Amino acid sequence: MHKNVIDIPIIAITGSSGKTTVKEMVSSILQLCWKTFKSFENGNDVWFTSQYVKQIDSSYQAIVLEYGMTHAGNITEHCRLIQPNMGIITNVGIAHVGNFEDQKYGVISAKSELIKGMKPDGILFLNEDDTISKLLDRGGFKGEVITIGIQNNADYKAKEIHYNDNGMDFQVEIDGINSPFYIPIFGYHNVYNALFAIAVSHRFGFSIEDIRLGLGTYYKTFGRLTVYRLKNEITIINDTFNAKPDAMKVAIDVLSNIGKGTKIAVLGCMFDLGTYTVHAHKEIGHYAASRKVHYLYTVGKEAKIIGEAALESGLLDENVKHFDSLDQLHQTLIGKIEPNTAVLIKGYCGIENSIKLKMTDTAMFLKNYFE
Q1: Could you tell me which residues come within 8 angstroms of residue 49 by beta carbon, excluding any fewer than 6 positions away?
Q2: In this structure, how many other beta carbons lie within 10 angstroms of the beta carbon of residue 368?
Q3: Burial of 200 by CB count in 10 Å (0-12 exposed, 13-18 middle, 19+ buried)?
Q4: Closest Cα to residue 144, out of 22, 6, 38, 26?
Q5: Which band of pLDDT confidence, cut at 50, 70 and 90, is reported for residue 7?
Q6: Which of 254, 329, 331 is nearest to 299 (CA)?
Q7: 260-282 b/e (C-beta count within 10 Å ≥ 16 → b)
């Protein structure tokens, strides 16, 4: 095993989505051979990084951290506390765009802070398929840039991607040979996440066998496309950890791909979107209708916009319903779910009449009721 140019990799991961999954995949591979420090669960704000400074010592052979961002300057502060020599920017979306005066370009500038704050002669990993990532300010970065992708040519490109019963199969050409990989989670977006882990670990000389082992056994965080296979071929998809526009779409894609019979999407609100709020919720409604979701149920004030947009896109009026309480939602779901039904629960929570409605409660209610 060799570490090439960088002796001790300090890997910082940022992006609008995928940070925690990439962190877990990368560290799962690296720890097979090296003592590896990784950030705690999704503890990725500046306070957590300030605590990691106290916990990391010279015994670690690799460090894998998430650098979260809600406001300008956050990532600069992360880098001041622990300067990475390797940086991964998973993608650039509109998560937290409402916190920036310059909206989308404010997010781009904030993500660019990682490039400016990392070692200028380090290694940067970018998503070649993410068009907004091409607008990142690379400033004086003089290091190596390694790309991953599915649609466009990249240093590590996935092809022959297929859903299987428990996750995704795909191939990546490495050293001139097409190597098959498997990840125990659904979604094309998770193939992108795996590609970052493959690129990092291969860059350090890890074998294909070790990479496969690490990807197949990485720690999956609760509520991130957690799939429950229950009696009578009923499937519950618990994706309640967060709710961002891109994540909403990929969750709907997973429902569309693994649901074999009736497909029900239960969607909550998306927050911190500023002037994009109405547009983003409308876009999700149009998307759900295009992916042939049979029933669409929404919870929370802003989520009502999703249902209205789905109706505009042709979903039948009797198949779209908004709920003011989880009790009403649960009773409707009990009556609607029959054998061979797949249900997606997606969203942080909804706020209706000053009552906080936690979407994860719905996921666990259905799991317990039908298991």
Answers
A1: 39, 65, 67, 77, 78, 81, 82
A2: 10
A3: buried
A4: 6
A5: confident
A6: 329
A7: eebbbbbbbbbbebbebbeebbb
- Give percent of the chain with pLDDT exceeding 70: 92
CA–CA dist 244, 349 (Å, integer): 12
> Tell me, what's the pLDDT at 349?
60
Range 80-91 burial, b when 16+ CB lie within 10 A, else e: ebbebbbbbbbb
- The end-to-end CA distance of the chain, in Å, is 45
Q: Quote the CA–CA distance of 299 and 267 in Å, as a whole number.
A: 6
Question: Are 265 and 284 contacting, i.e. CB atoms less than 8 angstroms apart?
Answer: no
Residue 160 half-sphere exposure, CB side, CA atoms within 13 Å?
A: 10
Please state, in angstroms and as integers, the Cα–Cα distance from residue 192 to each residue in 45, 151, 209, 297, 344, following that order: 23, 11, 19, 29, 22
| Cα gap 154→162, rounded to integer Å | 20
For the four alpha carbons of 348, 307, 274 and 68, in that order, the dihedral sign comes to: positive
The residues, ordered by sequence, that sit 6+ positions from 58 with a Cβ below 8 Å of its Cβ are none
Residue 47: is it exposed, middle or buried by C-beta count within 10 angstroms (0-12/13-18/19+)? exposed
